[in-house]
């Protein structure tokens, strides 16, 4: 289950957020004419080869990769929870998503840390990642979204349009949080303090298009009990039904 290819590692200093933060503000965003990539990381606090991959993902913004180029999200899986340390961010549905993605793309096995770029397994370093993003194709879908605060979460109003009508295409939304810290007391990372960004706290979808070119959704997403709105954002992406290919992605901040 551990990574079998060496990922480039980068060091970053992360500052802990204040204990009390105000509620999120309203924000809107629209995807561009080029495809924005979705980078999925499957990880666990119980896996000692995961922190380098997380550090690399955490540092994408600092190394010049913008939200218009890539939307990173980190799914904490639960199959490490029985091996000495329970990851407080892990969810069984994230494990199920990883298993389904691997099966859909005919992958050989499920492991951590695993990176998927636009729905396909990806291995490499900062140089090859930059090359992959520079080859981004013209977008065949457009996403527009507005995020408004609610008493206990956010309301996302979004419109997605696609150029080609295909059965099975679906929208997904993830409520993510940055700047999280865990002090691991047992397992492979015992004694380590781990820094997490782009942690998926809630996943919603699929929302299917059916036989139409455009779809509008209004979705209320509750925060996790300990989630901080000012450290949160909403990731939105459109997947092609039969392949799982990500056609377009968008990130909307809550701060």
List the helices and strands and how they pair.
Layout: E1 27-30, E2 37-43, H1 50-58, E3 70-76, H2 92-104, E4 114-117, E5 120-122, H3 126-134, E6 141-149, E7 153-162, E8 170-177, E9 180-183, E10 193-196, E11 199-208, E12 214-222, E13 232-239, E14 246-253
Parallel strand pairs: 2-3
Antiparallel strand pairs: 1-6, 2-4, 4-5, 6-7, 7-12, 8-11, 8-13, 9-10, 13-14
Tell me what you see in this structure.
By secondary structure, the protein is mainly β. The chain has one domain: Sandwich (Immunoglobulin-like), CATH 2.60.40. It is 12% helix and 37% strand. It has helices at 50-58, 92-104, 126-134, and strands at residues 27-30, 37-43, 70-76, 114-117, 120-122, 141-149, 153-162, 170-177, 180-183, 193-196, 199-208, 214-222, 232-239, 246-253. The strands form four sheets. A four-stranded antiparallel sheet has the order 1-6-7-12, with no helix packed on it. The protein is globular, with a radius of gyration of 17 Å.
Q: Brief description of this entry?
A:
The chain is mostly beta strands and 255 residues long.
- Rg calc: 17 Å
The number of E-state strands comes to 14
The number of distinct structural domains comes to: 1
The CATH C-level name is Mainly Beta
Based on secondary structure, the structural category is mainly beta
Major sheet characteristics: 4 strands, antiparallel
- As a percent range, the share of strand residues is 35-45%
The CATH topology name reads: Immunoglobulin-like
CATH superfamily, by name, is: Immunoglobulins
């Amino acid at each position: 289950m551990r990574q079998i290819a060496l990922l480039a590692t980068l060091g970053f200093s992360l500052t802990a957020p204040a204990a009390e933060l105000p509620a999120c503000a309203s924000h809107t965003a629209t995807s561009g004419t080029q495809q924005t990539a979705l980078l999925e990381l499957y990880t666990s606090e119980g896996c000692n080869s995961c922190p380098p991959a997380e550090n690399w993902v955490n540092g994408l913004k600092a190394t010049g990769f913008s939200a218009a180029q890539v939307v990173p999200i980190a799914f904490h899986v639960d199959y490490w929870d029985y091996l000495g340390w329970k990851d407080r961010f892990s969810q069984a549905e994230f494990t199920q998503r990883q298993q389904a993605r691997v099966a859909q793309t005919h992958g050989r096995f499920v492991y951590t840390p695993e990176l998927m770029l636009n729905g396909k397994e990806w291995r490499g370093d900062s140089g090859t990642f930059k090359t992959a993003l520079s080859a981004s194709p013209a977008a065949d879908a457009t996403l527009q979204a507005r995020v408004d605060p609610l008493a206990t979460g956010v309301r996302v109003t979004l419109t997605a349009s696609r150029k080609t009508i295909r059965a099975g295409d679906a929208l997904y939304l993830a409520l993510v949080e940055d700047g999280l810290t865990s002090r691991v007391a047992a397992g492979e990372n015992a004694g380590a303090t781990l820094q997490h960004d782009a942690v998926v706290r809630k996943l919603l979808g699929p929302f299917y298009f059916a036989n139409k070119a455009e779809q509008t959704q209004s979705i209320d997403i509750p925060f996790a009990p300990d989630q901080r709105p000012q450290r949160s954002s909403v990731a939105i992406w459109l997947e092609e039904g039969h392949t799982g290919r990500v056609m377009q992605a968008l990130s909307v901040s809550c701060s």
